[in-house]
Specification:
By secondary structure, the protein is an alpha/beta fold. The chain has three domains: 4-83; 86-171, no CATH class; 182-294, Dna Topoisomerase Vi A Subunit, Chain: A, domain 2 (3-Layer(aba) Sandwich). The chain is built from 13 helices and 13 strands. Strand 12, helix 11 and strand 13 form a beta-alpha-beta unit. Helix 3 (60-68) crosses helix 4 (72-83), helix 10 packs parallel to helix 11 and helix 12 (274-280) crosses helix 13. The radius of gyration is 20 Å and the shape is globular.
Length: 296
């Protein structure tokens, strides 16, 4: 179980999950400061941030106190959720199973991810989607035997679960879903998908790492990140071929264009997404990416 110092040391993870580049100034996180020019800086040695505009500084606990307008005690508990502390319980379980699992105590997200990864061969979920043992190992994909869920880690301190018997997603309580592979935003070409499954599918077909929104609700946050970083990457929008995906891709494209950020959109028609194309016509998926994007 993480102590307070260890939780505070997760400040860079928290900032990165918000799309913040910790190597540059970023907009102040203080709620009462309208920071038009990025003036806050992350200090690794102190594990704190400081704004040179308004003078506010703080650690992870302080940031969460401001963000949620709560006291120190509540902020520590909330910080544990943000840091990835979980119980092996679910709000949907029965009282008896809750008590049994409660006796196992706490796991950090990293411990839970390791445990789930060790059980990955007990499901065919990933193999059915064309994932190789190598890619499963690379991203430490896993299986939760208790809830029959596929486990998708995003770094060491965050994961989400997808039901196998029915398509339902479970996120870590009290946290916003972070981007998958957000380091790709610094590449010459950043291919953006809706889901981790699609991002990995394109990587399998083309050996090119991709970034995933992890839901269209993160679209605005992605645009904000691009604006903050003043990205020079070519943003390739590879969202789902459905109404939501098409509309979201257009919204992102219009906003990126307004920011003078180069972008283009690709379609997986007649398939719904990259994973479906990988499973049915992997060569076609490879050709779309290589011919239209990487080597046009």
């Amino acid at each position: 179980m993480l102590d307070i110092k260890e939780i505070k040391n997760l400040l860079p993870n928290y900032l990165l999950n918000r799309g913040i580049n910790i190597n540059r100034n970023f907009h102040c996180l203080a709620p009462n400061h309208s920071d038009n020019t990025p003036s806050m800086r992350y200090h690794a040695a102190k594990q704190r941030v400081k704004c040179f505009g308004c003078g506010w500084s703080g650690d992870l606990i302080d940031i969460i106190k401001h963000e949620y307008n709560i006291g120190t005690g509540e902020a520590i508990l909330k910080a544990k959720e943000v840091a990835g502390i979980i119980r092996e319980t679910s709000p949907r379980t029965s009282t008896s199973s809750y008590k049994n699992k409660q006796e196992t105590g706490y796991l950090t997200a990293e411990e839970y991810i390791t445990k789930a990864h060790s059980a990955v061969n007990k499901t065919s979920f990933f193999f059915d989607r064309g994932f190789s043992p190598e890619i499963i190992s690379k991203y430490k994909l896993g299986y939760d035997e208790i809830y029959n869920c596929a486990v998708f880690p995003i770094g060491k301190n965050y994961f989400f679960k997808r039901g196998i018997s029915r398509k339902v997603f479970y996120n870590q309580k009290g946290t916003n879903v972070p981007f998958f592979n957000n380091k790709v935003i610094y590449d010459k070409i950043c291919i953006l998908t809706e889901s981790v499954t699609d991002a990995i599918s394109i990587e399998i077909a083309t050996d090119t790492e991709c970034m995933a929104l992890n839901g269209v609700n993160n679209a605005e946050r992605f645009v904000e990140m691009c604006a903050t970083l003043k990205t020079k990457s070519l943003i390739v929008l590879a969202l789902d071929n459905d109404t939501t995906g098409i509309n979201t891709a257009k919204i992102i494209s219009d906003k990126l264009t307004a920011l003078s950020i180069e972008n283009k959109t690709i379609s997986f028609e007649p398939y719904k997404d990259a994973n479906e194309m990988l499973c049915k016509t992997p060569k076609e998926l490879k050709n779309i990416i290589l011919q239209k994007i990487i080597n046009p």
